[in-house]
Structure formats: structure tokens, C-alpha cells
Design a protein that fits this description.
heterodimer, A: about 500 residues, mainly alpha, two-stranded antiparallel sheet, globular, B: about 725 residues, two-stranded antiparallel ribbon, 29 helices, about 75% helix
């Protein structure tokens, strides 16, 4: 029944339906996006169950035989949880979008006086589905060209969504987002093409043939720079706070938690595993770079008053953790990268959705104007705390386990490696307090303290906005208590695919 | 055996922490059935914890406890040791678990009265029961990772309960009186979580290092394989010392020891029942427990396997404990908030426990004595300090103020509370024959038994702290219960507020605690004649038995009478030293301490120094709060906005220009040639690439084609040029 193919095709088919039906269904077009994603989630769970017990699931097609191209979709220990996370996030955020986008369009009409036709819903959800397909395709691809196409398919709809429905200077910011990640992608393409020149194949699995060539470090760097731009590591990060802050909030809730982390996944899939000996050579440099990203993102988060910008910088900091795990070049650390992608995905998605709740219910994004809201929104406050715990790594949320894995890899990599890396590891682990610090400080500024007079009438969010958050929080707790759901995929994969 | 069968076979160590956690989760549901049902259910769940904890006691007395029980694999590390879920049932964990469960239960009962009428009780019970469950999990865990989970769990409850009054009403603020800064509860909760969090990450770092070398985190396996992995770590000079110190910083954070002690005074912002349970009797002992739990590893390493650096573990914790005992006792002398005096006192007393555990490793013979002393003081302190806090709760409840200068003359209004608090304070001061006397004596004895210069120096410091302890106890007692009524009380009466004794649901729990304090004391006295009944000897036997089971050989020593007498006489001298000024200033009130202080500039300087907490708190705030906050602003303005934001703008402006240039100069001249001569193999890919890029923005298309080829060509040049 080719489940992976269906996972990509079905939402793709629903995209034009959503586009056409938007005019009639208006806000309820969201359900058209919801239905195919439920179906794909069921398929993804089936595949996950299959991979749990047996070998990886591969669907392979001949694509362009004259160029030696195949089109493959692979769910293995590495990609199963990427796929599940993206699918779950997209699924529930589509529900969240229903009330949120309605609010957004009303607000828009109110502010600008423009009339927003019902067609806007159709376009939004069509792009939304394309975006979801782009992300899922990227993590399933087995072929470099195929990978690149999906990688670009992530970019274009998300750019259009920011450009069409964003806040503030959405067009300029959309362009900036497009430019930065696109330049990264082009450098990536250069790396891909040069690897073809050496190996004569576009298969990802053939990339290991590059090792040994004097060009190998350059190819690795070219590919990695593309992914680092996506991850917004320090120096390549400036597009992120703008894009994530000004995107419509449900899209922010996918950009930060689901999309940028794919950069880290791709770095593992394309470089860290197949070109392991080459990749290892960068460990010290990358550790240091990751540390700077962690700390810099955290400090910048502290400096923000706009809650979405705050969350965006916090994402940069969390990408620093993924980067640190990558840089460890150790099996536990690399497992921790994917694991923390999942924790960060659920945690940060909760937080961005909370930002959206505050925007729609209170009407402000400025943390200064908030306070004491725990009285009015007890459930939102509890969920926010859980979201913060998931990214800060407080048990029993899964963030604890994922950070544990990352740092266990970082320390074992460092103790085998050099003294500098041990220092970086110790400093990095101390800097995790920064996350706890900015999380609790923000928690306190938004939800605790006296309730200002003007917020006395604020109401709890509607069920459609809260249900997704509850699902994410429950998932974060469940996996936190039973982490084997994730680690039993990841650890065997890395221990078998990395050289001893 | 399946996990359920394992639990069914020996349910005590599992259910005693699982049930309170379940109870916590059920609180929001039980609220629906009515507040009364919910409150009684909370008491019931706490009671069940006592029952299941106590179910392990017969095995302890019979001497055949099950040891390490593994339930299931938590995370499978292919090719390595798995992380397992398990409990370690041995004397140390059984004794501490019982103390925790029992005191928790009493305080839950007290809470029913103390928190009566609070509108957010469901939240209170949730975190309270969750705390009990996590604390027992921590104590009963058989591996470090599970300890860490309980450790973070209790920390989270502590955060939530310190900030329980999150609305930050002015009357809940702590600190002051102005100009001394005052802090709202939500600030205090955050401070506690962040400061202990600092300790936790150090601990985590140590755990990762240990995990890397030992390959396991199970306590029993860690002790069994200690010689191997300690040698492996010690192979890199300095690494084992670093590991030991990183490890100890975790307990220092949790147990509020120098240099991470500054959070505990502020933790008093929570309800008093919370202070009694979490910040006096149980959670803050978690650090002591963990230090004791790991000490056999380092003891073995140094004394039996000659790993020199293992001694750092003991030297460091002895120093930290001794210094903290003195530091905090001195601050308690000048504090004006009733609960803060008790908080400083807690920090100081935990210092004693750490000191005992520290000196235990300084000589081979002192180990058993020190371990026993630390544990004994842990238990005895838990009893009398919980009682003190509960009494303080009643007093604060009655007078509606946290400041001792708002009290005075309460003896006649609250005779029961006065009597019980008096006994508890005497026990804290180490007046014989109360429990505090025996346990403090045990700490002193272990210092003397270690017989190293460091141990003796720390003994002197600890003895001086004992004098301070008696002095601040008398001060606190007198200002609360004796003398004239304060202005504040007169005003209260004037407004028709009648000060009254606490209801039985409140005083009975602390009466039970005080009865135990007296009971342990009397047993200690009987123990002089009949050693079988001595609590100290009982603990020593249990510890000996436990170490024996772990194959750690620690000799039992019989202290000479002369040493014992030395310890007792030093205690007596110190009581005199502290009691004399106490009697003069506070009991007989022959001299006014404030007058004395204001007459001498030296004393005044000391007072200011102590009042500002040795300037540690202001310093921490200056560096880690204000410093950090201004640094991030500076960085945001200086780097992010000044450089990166502009960079982005420049990039956006620069690219269209560049693309025009590339199109004219590069695309036609170089690219065409490059394509014709160079890379036919890349053409197919490029074709697909070109098909994809119909974004409609011409300059970008051109731009990235140019860019791609630029890099390709550079690579080509590198390849041929270099090859």
C-alpha cells in the first residue's frame, strides 16, 4: 500500500481541494487540512510500528534512469521520529489555525479596512498542506536531488505564508527569510553537485564515497553551511527572529519547532553519518560555535519584550543544543539531537501557540503589558509551564531525557577528544541554567504577580486552541516517562551506522 | 518476572512513592467531589506513604532487607549498560524514607488546619503530594538518574510552593524592613529554582563524567566497580578532583550550602507548612543523603585502592559543611524574621551533617562514626526543625506578621505552642538530654575521631557555631514569647483581634514531633546504661551492616572515654558561652543588646556585615542578575542590532547589485565557458534544478546559478591546481 508515498501524495491532493473549498467553507477549511493529516499520521504510526520490530521501511521508484536517478522514501530509526513529530505538529496546529486565522483576518480587516475575502482561507490551508508535505518529504528522501527539491518545497510555501499573512513588514521580512535560507540552499546544492562529481551517484547512502577525497572537507562544509543557515546558528541567525516573530502565529509554531531543526537532521543524514571521519575533524570548532549559539540565543531572548521574538531567540539557543549534540560526533549525542528536536518541537510549539492565545485574547505581544494572568487563564498557564519545562529539560518532561542524551554524548565525545572540548562541555552544561532562567522569568512576568486592571476581563482560550496544546503536553510527559519510545529507534541506528 | 509481579512481591519501596504521585494527579478530579473529600484524600494518600514506608521496617530490624530491586529497562544502550528503573532498599534508604514519610504525614495533617479556607488548595495538595512522591523516589532510587528525576521533581514542587502566593500581594513579601530590599513570592520561587538549578547542572556534569568511565549509574554497581573506574578517571590528573567537586556542588545547591546557600532564606515566602516540610525537614536533606550515598565509592577509592584524589570528596565537603555551619549561624543572630532565623539555622545545621560526612573520610577509622553522625543529625534535626517551623506557623498565623519585633509576650496567649517550641529550641541548641544533644555530640565525636588538623580546625568552628546556635535560639524565643507585647500586638487587640492558641489539628502534629525529640533524647540517656537502646548505636549497627553488604570494610572503633568527655565538655563550654549573653540580653534583659552594638563601631560593623549576609547576597545579585541583565542589553544593542541587523539589510541591498554585475561580467564570460568545458555530468542535475526555480524573480535565479557555478569552478580550480 506504499504508506510513505501516500503520506506525501494525499496531503498534496488535498491542497487544491482546500484551495477551492476555501470560498465556501471559510474558517472551517481547516478541517480539509486536518483530515489528510490524520490519515497520514495513522500511516506514519503503522510504519513506525513496522520499523520498531523490523528493518527500515523503504519505497523506491525509478525516477530518471538516464541520469541514474531514483526516487526513494525511507523510514528508518533516524527518520521515524522526525516524520512523527512533523506530522503530529502539523496535524494539531491545523486545528489551532481555525480560530486563530479567523481572528487574524478579522483583526486585519479591522486594522487596514481592507476586505479579506473567504478565498484567503483556501490559499492559507493549501499552502499549509504544501508546507507540511515539503517537511515530511525532506526527512524521507533518499536521493540528494529529491532531498533538495523537498528542501526547497519547505521554503517556498512558508515564504508565501509569511509574505501573505504575516505581521509588520511582512514582505520585506519574507524576502529576507527567503534570501538567507535560499543562499544557504544554493551552497548546499554546490556541495551536492560536487559530491556527485566524485561518487557518480546522487544516492544519500553513496555520500560515504566522498570520504578520502581531498575535496571531502569542502563538500562537507558546503553542505553543512546550507543546514546551519536553516538552523540559524550564530552568525547565520539574523533572519530567524524576524521571520518567526512576524509569521502568522500557527506558522511560527511550525517554523520554529518543526522546520529549522530539520537542518540538524539533514546534517546527520547527509554528513555526520556517511562522512563520519570527515565530520569528526570539525568537532572542536563546532562545539565552540554551538556554545556561542546557545549562550548568544539565550542572552538575546532575555533582552526581548516581544513574546514572539523572545521565543524565536530561544529557538536559536535551542538550535545551539542540537548543534552541540551534532558536534559531539558520538552516538549518544547524535541520538540526543533527534530526541531534543522532538522535545523542542512539542515544547516550543506549545509556547508559540500560547503566544498566539495571548495575541488573540489579550491583544498584545509585549511582555511588559502582561502579568498575573494565571488567575484568568489557569490552564494556559499550566501548559506554558510544561512547555518551558520541556525545553529547559525538567523531568518528567521528555526534555530532561533529550538533554541528558545530548550531554552524555557531549561528555563522552569530549573525554575521548581534547581538553578544550571538556571545557566547552562543562561551560555548556552550566549555561543550561540560562534556559531555566529566561523561562521562569518570562513565566513570572506573564502569569504571576498582581493582575493589572485592564486584564481583568481576559478569558481562557477556546477549546480548539487549547486541545492541541494539551496533546503536546501529554506527549511530552508520556515520552518523558517512557523514553524508549524514542531511544529504541535512535540508539540502535547510530550504534550500527557509526564506526566504532 | 513482569514489572507488576516485581512490585507485587515487595510493594513497600514502590507504592510509597507511586501512591502520593497518583494522589497528586487525582486531586483535580477529587476537587469535583467536594473540598472536604479532597482534603481528606490528601491526608489518606500521605498516610498510605507512611504505611508502605513502614512496611519495610520489620525487614530492617530483622537485618535481611532485599537490597537492589530492578523493575524494568528504562533506556536500552545497545552494547552498554542499560539504564534501569529500580529501588535500593537498604538501611540508609529505609530509615530516611520513613523519616520523610512520617514527617510529611504530620505536616499534611497540620496543613488541613493551617491552609483552611485557602481558595487554591487543589494546587497546594497537588504539589504537596507530588513532592512527597518525588522525595521518596529520590531516597529509594538505586541509580543516579532516577535520583536526579526525583531531585528535579522536588525542586519543581519547591518552586511551585514557594511561589504559591503567586499574586504577590504586599503582605506576602519577604525581606525588609526597608531599606533592605523586599522580594515577592514569585521572585523567591524563581530564585530557589535557578540557584539550585546551578547546583544541578554541576552535578549532571559529574554524572556524565562518571557515566563515561563507569558505564553504569547504579549505586551498587558503581561501588562494586569503583576501583576500576576511579583509576580510569584518576589517570588524567585533576579530573577526579574536578568530578568530586562538580558532584558535591549539586548537594550544595539542594541543601543550601556555601556557595549556593543564598536561596533558602528567600524560600520562606511559601506557606509555613511548606517551609517546614520542604525547606527544613526533607528536601534540603536530599543533598546530605546523596553525599552519604556516594561516600562509600570515594572511601573505597582512597582507603582501599590508593586513589589519592578521591580524598578531595571528603576534604571539600568537610570544609563546606564546617564553614556553612558558622556562616549561617552568624546570620541567624541578626535576622528579624521569625522564619528566616529558622532558615539560617537550617542551613547551619545541615552544615553540621555535611561536616560529619566530610570528616568521615579523613581517616579510615572515622568513616562509620561520621556516616552515623551525619545520618543521626539528619533525623534529629528533621524532627525538631519541623516542630519549630510548625510552631512558627502557628505564631505567625496568630499575630499576622513575620517579624519578631511584632511579637513578644505571647507566652500567655499560646501556652502549648510556647512549651513545645521551647523544647524544640533547646534540642536545637543541644541541651541534654534532648535529641539534638546526642546528634550534635555524634558530629563532634566524628571530628575528633578523624584526628587530622583540618578536622580539628573544623571542630573548633563547629563548636563556636554551637555557641551561636544557643544564643540565637534564646534571642528568638525571648523576642517571640517573653517580655512586653509589641506595639503591633497592642494594635491588633485594639482592632478587636483576639490572639489565641492554635487549634488541635495544628498543635497535635508538632506535639508528636516534640514528643519524639524527647523520646530520642531519653533513649540516648538510657543508651548510656543499656547500649542496645541507644539510637546512635542502632544507626551505627545499621550502617555497618549496610556497608558490609556492599563489601565495604569500615572498622568499628570504640571511642576512648577521654575523647567522649572532651566532646561533652566542649559542648558544655559552648552552651555557657552562648547562654551567658543570651541570659543577659534576652532572658533577664539586664542589658540591651542594641545599645551595646550602637556604642561600639566594631560591633556595629559586624552587625552590618551580618545583616547584609556577609555581602554574599548583594554580590550574587550584582553579578548574576544585574550584571547579566545589563550585559544582554549591551550585547543586543552592540552586536545584534548594530551588526547583524545591518548586515541583513546590507545583504538585501547588495545582492541585486551583485546579480547585475554577475550577469554582465560573469555569467556570459565565465559561465558559458565553464559549462561547455567543465561539468557535463552535472548538467542533468542542473536541468532539474532550473526547472524548479521558477520563482519569477529573475535576479535571484541568475544570482544563484551564478553563485553555484562560482563555487563549482572554485572547487575545480582547487582540484586541478592542488592535484
Amino acid at each position: 500500500m506504499y504508506p510513505l508515498t501516500q503520506i506525501l501524495i494525499v496531503p498534496l491532493l488535498f491542497a487544491p481541494i482546500a484551495y477551492v473549498m476555501g470560498r465556501r467553507l471559510e474558517r472551517n477549511t481547516g478541517w480539509i487540512a486536518f483530515i489528510p493529516l490524520v490519515y497520514t499520521l495513522l500511516l506514519a504510526l503503522l510504519v513506525a510500528a513496522e520499523v520498531w520490530e523490523g528493518p527500515p521501511h523503504l519505497e523506491l521508484y525509478r525516477w530518471a534512469p538516464e541520469a541514474g536517478l531514483t526516487f526513494g522514501l525511507l523510514a528508518d530509526g533516524l527518520s521515524v521520529w522526525m516524520l512523527l513529530t512533523i506530522n503530529i505538529l502539523c496535524l494539531f496546529v491545523s486545528l489551532y489555525s481555525i480560530p486563530y486565522m479567523e481572528h487574524r483576518f478579522h483583526e486585519w480587516e479591522h486594522e487596514t479596512g481592507e476586505h479579506i475575502g473567504p478565498q484567503a482561507y483556501g490559499t492559507y490551508y493549501a499552502l499549509y498542506l504544501l508546507y507540511a508535505v515539503g517537511m515530511m518529504g525532506t526527512v524521507l528522501a533518499t536521493n540528494l536531488i529529491e532531498f533538495y527539491l523537498f528542501y526547497e518545497l519547505m521554503l517556498v510555501p512558508s515564504w508565501a505564508l509569511i509574505n501573505n499573512y504575516g505581521y509588520g513588514e511582512r514582505e520585506r521580512i519574507g524576502m529576507m527569510y527567503f534570501l538567507w535560507t535560499h543562499v544557504g540552499a544554493v551552497i548546499l546544492l554546490a556541495g551536492i553537485l560536487s559530491s556527485y562529481w566524485i561518487t557518480g551517484s546522487f544516492e544519500i547512502s553513496a555520500l560515504s564515497g566522498v570520504v578520502g577525497s581531498p575535496l571531502a572537507p569542502w563538500i562537507a562544509i558546503a553542505i553543512l553551511i546550507g543546514f546551519f543557515t536553516k538552523m540559524a546558528v550564530f552568525g547565520l541567525h539574523i533572519w530567524l527572529p524576524y521571520a518567526h516573530a512576524e509569521a502568522p502565529t500557527p506558522i511560527s509554531a511550525l517554523l520554529s519547532p518543526a522546520m529549522i531543526g530539520i537542518g540538524a537532521y539533514a546534517a546527520i543524514r547527509l554528513v555526520a553519518v556517511p562522512m563520519y571521519p570527515v565530520f569528526r575533524g570539525f568537532a572542536t570548532l563546532f562545539s565552540l560555535w554551538a556554545l556561542v549559539t546557545m549562550v548568544y540565543g539565550g542572552l538575546m531572548a532575555l533582552a526581548q519584550d516581544d513574546i514572539k521574538r523572545f521565543l524565536a531567540y530561544s529557538s536559536i539557543s535551542q538550535m545551539g543544543y542540537l548543534f552541540l549534540g551534532l558536534a559531539s560526533a558520538a552516538a549518544y549525542g547524535l541520538s540526543g539531537v533527534v530526541f531534543h528536536y522532538v522535545s523542542h518541537g512539542f515544547g516550543k510549539c506549545i509556547l508559540f501557540c500560547v503566544a498566539g492565545i495571548l495575541i488573540s485574547r489579550v491583544g498584545t505581544r509585549s511582555i511588559k503589558e502582561l502579568g498575573g494572568l494565571a488567575d484568568r487563564m489557569p490552564l494556559t498557564a499550566t501548559l506554558t509551564l510544561l512547555g518551558f519545562f520541556a525545553i529547559a529539560g525538567v523531568p518528567p518532561t521528555m526534555g530532561f531525557m533529550s538533554k541528558f542524551m545530548i550531554f552524555s554524548g557531549v561528555f563522552s565525545g569530549a573525554l575521548e577528544g581534547s581538553a578544550e572540548r571538556v571545557i566547552v562541555a562543562v561551560v555548556a552544561i552550566i549555561m543550561t541554567v540560562l534556559t531555566v532562567g529566561y523561562a521562569l522569568w518570562t513565566m513570572r512576568r506573564i502569569f504571576f504577580g498582581p493582575l493589572p486592571e485592564r486584564l481583568k476581563e481576559v478569558k481562557e482560550a477556546p477549546p480548539l486552541m487549547l486541545i492541541p496544546l494539551i496533546v503536546f503536553a501529554v506527549a511530552a510527559l508520556l515520552i518523558g516517562i517512557y523514553p524508549r519510545l524514542v531511544t529504541d529507534y535512535l540508539l540502535p541506528y547510530f550504534l550500527s551506522s557509526l564506526p566504532k | 518476572m513482569g514489572p507488576l509481579e516485581v512490585i507485587a512481591e515487595y510493594p513497600g519501596p514502590w507504592l510509597c512513592w507511586l501512591l502520593p504521585i497518583l494522589g497528586a494527579l487525582s486531586m483535580p478530579l477529587l476537587e469535583r467531589l467536594g473540598h472536604r473529600v479532597r482534603d481528606y484524600a490528601a491526608v489518606l494518600f500521605a498516610f498510605l506513604a507512611v504505611v508502605f514506608a513502614a512496611s519495610m521496617l520489620p525487614d530492617l530490624l530483622a537485618g535481611h532487607y532485599p537490597g537492589d530491586i530492578k523493575l524494568t529497562t528504562w533506556i536500552e544502550f545497545p552494547g552498554g549498560h542499560p539504564l534501569e528503573v529500580g529501588v535500593l532498599v537498604d538501611p540508609l534508604s529505609i530509615i530516611v524514607a520513613n523519616v520523610v514519610a512520617f514527617i510529611s504525614f504530620l505536616i499534611v495533617v497540620y496543613s488541613v488546619g493551617y491552609m483552611h479556607g485557602d481558595p487554591c488548595l487543589t494546587r497546594y495538595w497537588f504539589f504537596f503530594l507530588f513532592f512527597i512522591g518525588n522525595m521518596l523516589l529520590l531516597v529509594l532510587s538505586d541509580n543516579l538518574i532516577q535520583v536526579l528525576i526525583g531531585w528535579e521533581g522536588v525542586g519543581m514542587c519547591s518552586y511551585a510552593l514557594i511561589g504559591y502566593y503567586y499574586r504577590d500581594e504586599k503582605k506576602r513579601w519577604l525581606g525588609g524592613p526597608p531599606p533592605t530590599p523586599m522580594y515577592p513570592p514569585s521572585h523567591c520561587g524563581m530564585k530557589a529554582f535557578v540557584v539550585t538549578g546551578v547546583g544541578d547542572v554541576f552535578l549532571l556534569a559529574a554524572i556524565f563524567i562518571i557515566f563515561h568511565y563507569a558505564g553504569t549509574l547504579n549505586f551498587v554497581e558503581l561501588i562494586e566497580t569503583a576501583p576500576r573506574w576511579l583509576h580510569a578517571i584518576a589517570h588524567t590528573p585533576g579530573l577526579l578532583s574536578l568530578t568530586a567537586i562538580l558532584f558535591l556542588l549539586g548537594p550544595c545547591g539542594k541543601s543550601a550550602q556555601f556557595p549556593l546557600h543564598e536561596w533558602l532564606p528567600e524560600a520562606m515566602a511559601g506557606p509555613t507548612s511548606v517551609s517546614a516540610l520542604i525547606h527544613a525537614a526533607t528536601m534540603v536533606k536530599a543533598g546530605v543523603y546523596l553525599v552519604a550515598r556516594m561516600s562509600p565509592v570515594f572511601y573505597l577509592g582512597y582507603w582501599h585502592h590508593g586513589v589519592g584524589e578521591a580524598l578531595t570528596y571528603f576534604t571539600a565537603i568537610a570544609f563546606i559543611g564546617g564553614f556553612t555551619a558558622f556562616l549561617a549561624a552568624s546570620q541567624a543572630l541578626v535576622s528579624v524574621e521569625l522564619k528566616k532565623i529558622l532558615a539560617y539555622s537550617t542551613v547551619s545545621q545541615i552544615g553540621y551533617m555535611m561536616l560529619a560526612l566530610g570528616v568521615s573520610g579523613l581517616s579510615e577509622e572515622a568513616y562509620l562514626l561520621g556516616l552515623t553522625g551525619g545520618l543521626f543529625h539528619l533525623i534529629s534535626h528533621a524532627l525538631f526543625k519541623a516542630a519549630l517551623f510548625l510552631c512558627a506557623g502557628s505564631v505567625i498565623h496568630a499575630v499576622e506578621s513575620i517579624y519578631i519585633f511584632d511579637m513578644g509576650g505571647l507566652k500567655k496567649y499560646m501556652p502549648i505552642t510556647h512549651g513545645l517550641m521551647l523544647i524544640a529550641f533547646l534540642s536545637l541548641s543541644g541541651i541534654p538530654p534532648l535529641s539534638g544533644f546526642w546528634s550534635k555530640d555524634a558530629v563532634f565525636l566524628s571530628c575528633l575521631a578523624a584526628e587530622t588538623p583540618l578536622a580539628l580546625a573544623l571542630f573548633i568552628l563547629a563548636a563556636l557555631s554551637a555557641a551561636l546556635t544557643f544564643l540565637y535560639s534564646l534571642r528568638c524565643l525571648s523576642l517571640t514569647f517573653y517580655g512586653h507585647e509589641s506595639h503591633h500586638l497592642e494594635e491588633l487587640e485594639h482592632h478587636g483581634h483576639h490572639i489565641h492558641e492554635a487549634p488541635p489539628v495544628m498543635w497535635v502534629p508538632y506535639a508528636i514531633l516534640v514528643a519524639l525529640v524527647v523520646g530520642v533524647g531519653v533513649l540516648g540517656l538510657i543508651g548510656l546504661v543499656n547500649p542496645h537502646l541507644s539510637p546512635e548505636l542502632f544507626l551505627e549497627e545499621q550502617m555497618h551492616h549496610m556497608l558490609h553488604g556492599l563489601h565495604v570494610h569500615a572498622p568499628t572503633v570504640h571511642m576512648e572515654l577521654s575523647i567522649k568527655l572532651t566532646a561533652v565538655s566542649v559542648s558544655a563550654v559552648m552552651l555557657l558561652l552562648g547562654g551567658l549573653p543570651g541570659w543577659l540580653f534576652y532572658l533577664s534583659r539586664r542589658a540591651d543588646p542594641w545599645e551595646l552594638v550602637s556604642r561600639s563601631s566594631l560591633l556595629k560593623g559586624i552587625h552590618t556585615f551580618l545583616w547584609n549576609r556577609w555581602y554574599m547576597n548583594p554580590l550574587y545579585y550584582a553579578i548574576f542578575v544585574d550584571g547579566l541583565l545589563s550585559f544582554k542589553d549591551w550585547l543586543f544593542r552592540g552586536l545584534e542590532q548594530l551588526f547583524f541587523d545591518r548586515l541583513s539589510g546590507a545583504v538585501a541591498g547588495f545582492f541585486p547589485l551583485l546579480s547585475a554585475y554577475i550577469y554582465a561580467g560573469f555569467e556570459r564570460e565565465v559561465v558559458d565557458k565553464g559549462l561547455n568545458e567543465g561539468v557535463p555530468s552535472a548538467a542533468t542535475a542542473l536541468y532539474h534544478r532550473l526547472k524548479r526555480v521558477q520563482t519569477g524573480i529573475l535576479s535571484f535565479n541568475i544570482l544563484y546559478i551564478g553563485f553555484t557555478l562560482l563555487i563549482l569552478i572554485l572547487l575545480l580550480i582547487y582540484w586541478f591546481g592542488g592535484g
